[in-house]
Amino acid sequence: MFIENSDTSETFSKHDLHYMSKLLKNVATDLIEVAFPMCRSSAIPATPEILHLYRSCLNCVKMLYMLDMRKEFCPAGFWTAKKIHISQDLSRKNYLSKSIVSFHGVVNDRDDDEHLPPLSTIEQRSLAILEELPFLIAFNTRVLLLRDLCRYSLGENDYQRMHHELLNDSTIVIRRTHLYEDAFDKISTKSESDLKHKVRIQFINNVGLEEAGIDGGGIFKEFINEVLKTAFDPNRGFFLMTADNTLYPNPNVHLIVENFTDHFHFIGRLVGKAIFENILVDLPLAEFFLAKLLVDRASAHYLKSLDPVLYRNLLYLRDYSGDVSDLGLDFTTVNNDLGETRIMELKPNGRNIPVTNENRLEYIQRLADLKLNTQLKRQCAAFRDGLNSVVPLMWLRLFNHNELQVIIGGDTQEIDLSDLRAHTVYGGEFSVDHPTILLFWKILHKFTDIQRKQLLKFVTSCSRPPLLGFKELNPQFCIQSSGTENRMPTASTCLNLLKIPIIREEETLRTKLLAAIEQQAGFELS
């Protein structure tokens, strides 16, 4: 049902919603402390009334948070204003494989977690907040926790992780001329655990020769970016674009590819691998599709992100003050299957059921559900299963759908040159005060943000900076001298290394940099 109502007399004011959010947020965090007391003697009996209060309060806070994401009645930073301590040991103790039991002060472990130490009261409270109200924790804190969860899932210490890497290390040969096909054939069949471990790529170039270079991670970054770019290309048919240029599954993909669920599972696994390896990929996903990755069904208000025209028409129908039956609607909709028009009933015998003032909300709900859920059910389920096989959805639910887009594709804000410069190292004849380096940074300050992102992609294979700043880039962004000025700039993505010639003229260096970044046809190492 559409939550928004055009009759303001029937809704709360933004001031009221902000006040309720502030009050209930504090009550909810206090209730969690009561639910998990420090001393058994101070425990409150878990009566049905207490449990109902606890659950109702938490649900109200969640609803207010989701509404605030659309209506913005709370100021920026409101939900994370109260500093809540989260134990970083939760990831080491296999956090989120456990079931929290409110008002009992215990945690039910899975059978295979018996060897793990029990959680303290503080850790139980942390777990309850992360499971129930993760948006109360700062985004950066949750990102770090997700990183820890991925890292510790490969072993409890560096030795175990290195041992697993040595046992599971593999190299996959990929032809650049058959990028998606080779990736699907060789990765879709790999076991779920294998994809969590290191995967190295050996590219075969367009003339059938092995490309030079050893994959230290950079080539794999390029590979996963390019394969996902191909997979999400609307011309391939798996995904379509909305009016605002965001991607979502093609509802008619079954007419194009018979085994489409295998492909969506494979693509979901690749997105999961990118998240697991902290590789940003340039995928602007539709808001409703992101929401469906976290929950099974998208509610009707998400229709705006799929079809804004239909959304406005349904709002008009909802608020229509006349006799709805005069509009001549019935419980059917017209579907276009690759140019073939087909009438679909929204309920049994729908073509004979007129839409009236009494049943118009049912019509709106059924039509929105068809577009958002029914027509995309198998595609989204397969994608979600593939994603979950690499990064458990329980971990991703630490984030809302907008934050998930940032986790996948990075922030769209402009590149912070001061941050990049502060975390850049130099090699060869270069140093921080070398004349060519001073020219380089002067040129970058004059570049547009698009040109800066092109340069970043040229060097690192990704156009967006790391989520928590360039201090996360591993290896560090490095600029190395490559000889006299007759050379062109080159890059080694596996090392995040930019090689530029020693040049004293600003215009010459600028021209060479632009030529290199704008004509890049791949990241084959020299």
From TrEMBL:
Group of enzyme by EC: transferase
Catalytic activity as recorded in UniProt: S-ubiquitinyl-[E2 ubiquitin-conjugating enzyme]-L-cysteine + [acceptor protein]-L-lysine = [E2 ubiquitin-conjugating enzyme]-L-cysteine + N(6)-ubiquitinyl-[acceptor protein]-L-lysine
A biological process from GO: ubiquitin-dependent protein catabolic process
Catalytic residue list: 494
Annotated GO MF terms: ubiquitin protein ligase activity
Entry keywords, A to Z: Isopeptide bond, Transferase, Ubl conjugation, Ubl conjugation pathway
Keyword Transferase on entry: yes
Oligomeric and partner information: Interacts with 26S proteasomes. Interacts (via the HECT domain) with UBE2D1 and, less efficiently, with UBE2L3.
Protein name as it appears in the record: Ubiquitin-protein ligase E3C
Organism: Rhamnusium bicolor
Lineage: Eukaryota, Metazoa, Ecdysozoa, Arthropoda, Hexapoda
